[in-house]
Design brief:
The protein is α+β, with helices and mostly antiparallel strands. The chain folds into three domains: 153 residues, HUPs (Rossmann fold); 57 residues, Adenine nucleotide alpha hydrolases-like domains (SH3 type barrels); 93 residues, Translation factors (Elongation Factor Tu (Ef-tu), domain 3, Beta Barrel), CATH 2.40.30. Helix 1 packs across helix 6 and helix 3 packs antiparallel against helix 4. The chain is globular, with a radius of gyration of 22 Å.
């Protein structure tokens, strides 16, 4: 590891700060990069508050004797993440900006701009990589789950490709969050007690509904009970709501769940009850299905080049939670792949991504965008 040329993406938070500390303990002095992102359109430019983040990152660089560079990716962020989010919401789907930010900005635009000359890119994500022999004495690198199941972020990384995955380092992937904070405290890092961020810039520091309203406006529509057709109230636009949503409907006699959206008529259909049957499903269709490392791990442990014919038993997630679902995966007509879950799942939202893991819930095998249930 010594002598390896490493770029560390540092945000000023405790996780990425500890990454630098751990690399130095391994004899690696990384170059530190802070990615500045924001939103820009014809009305002007919205910056993400970053002064404290940059100050801490610069302190880390000085403290560990690392070169520091700020990389401005505002334009790329707007074109690839913000615009994607707006268009996805406009179509009535549920976007996942974190997935796009990782794929297209942190490990896309940054690598194209500054990361090409580095052997590895180190980040503070809670994830790991694992190497598996392919049967021909070659090792294949897989994205793998972190030790801390609650903090695991492999679902947010599930659209990376093999060239991205094989160059990544996740120094804190084998640690619990509490252990990371302990290391930061012992090292006297200024971020040791800093609160975790709530997501990428505009989802954490800018109110999501304010953001949507800015670009899509408001358009009043009906809220209708699915089973009876009874009008229960009104909403300000289907784009403010997602399938499975419970909060923000402001209806009495709840809880109520959003179970369907009529995009053409701007109608939200809701169902009442703690776990209404209408809010659950067991069949999930995926489009754009892809193997992250170009290999599928069979039940025997062998690696093959594509999803085998027939049914494959898998673990999977359709949202960012520590729990895995068990199900069966198979190809269907129209180029789609379908998951049949062993148990009903609440809130299957088209536009989100399903992440497919092996049966040990260790290796990330594949992902695809949810096309429907």
């Amino acid at each position: 590891m010594r002598g390896m040329n490493v770029a560390a993406l540092v945000s000023g938070g405790v996780d990425s700060s500890v990454v630098v500390h751990l690399l130095k303990e391994q004899g690696i002095t990384p170059d530190i990069f802070y990615i500045r992102i924001g939103m820009e359109d014809e009305e002007g430019y919205i910056d993400c508050p970053a002064e404290e983040d940059i100050e801490i990152t610069q302190w880390i660089a000085r403290h560990y004797g690392c070169r520091f560079e700020e990389v401005n990716l505002h334009k790329e962020y707007w074109e690839n993440v913000v615009s994607y989010t707006i268009e996805t919401v406009r179509r009535g789907l549920t976007p996942n900006p974190d997935v796009m930010c990782n794929k297209l900005i942190k490990f896309g635009a940054f690598v194209e701009r500054r990361g090409k000359d580095y052997d590895r890119i180190a980040t503070g994500h809670y994830a790991c990589t694992a190497q598996v022999e392919d049967g021909e004495c070659a090792l294949v690198t897989f994205l793998a789950t972190a030790k801390d199941a609650v903090k695991d972020q492999t679902d947010f990384l599930s659209q990376l490709d093999y060239d991205q995955i094989r160059r990544l380092m996740f120094p804190i992937g084998g640690m619990m969050k509490s252990e990371v904070r302990e290391v930061a405290a012992r090292a006297g890092l200024p971020s040791a007690q800093r609160k975790d961020s709530q997501g990428i810039c505009f989802l954490g520091k800018i109110n999501y509904n304010d953001f949507i309203k800015r670009y899509l406006g408001e358009h009043e529509g009906k809220i209708v009970e699915l089973e009876t057709g009874r009008v229960l109230g009104t909403h300000k636009g289907y784009w403010f709501h997602t399938i499975g949503q419970r909060k923000g409907l402001y209806l009495s006699g709840g809880p109520w769940f959003v179970v369907r959206k009529d995009i053409e008529e701007n109608v939200l259909y809701v169902s009442q009850g703690y776990e209404p049957a209408a809010a659950h499903g067991k069949s999930i269709s995926l489009m754009g299905f892809r193997l992250l490392s170009g290999k599928w791990k069979t039940e025997s442990g062998a690696l093959v080049d594509e999803l085998p014919d027939g049914v494959a038993d898998v673990k999977f997630k359709i949202r960012h939670t520590p729990e895995f679902h068990q199900g069966h995966l198979r190809r269907v007509e129209g180029g789609l792949v379908r998951i049949e879950s062993d148990d009903p799942i609440q809130g299957i939202a088209a536009g989100q991504y399903a992440t497919i893991y092996d049966n040990d819930a260790r290796l990330v095998l594949a992902s695809g965008m949810i096309a429907g249930s």
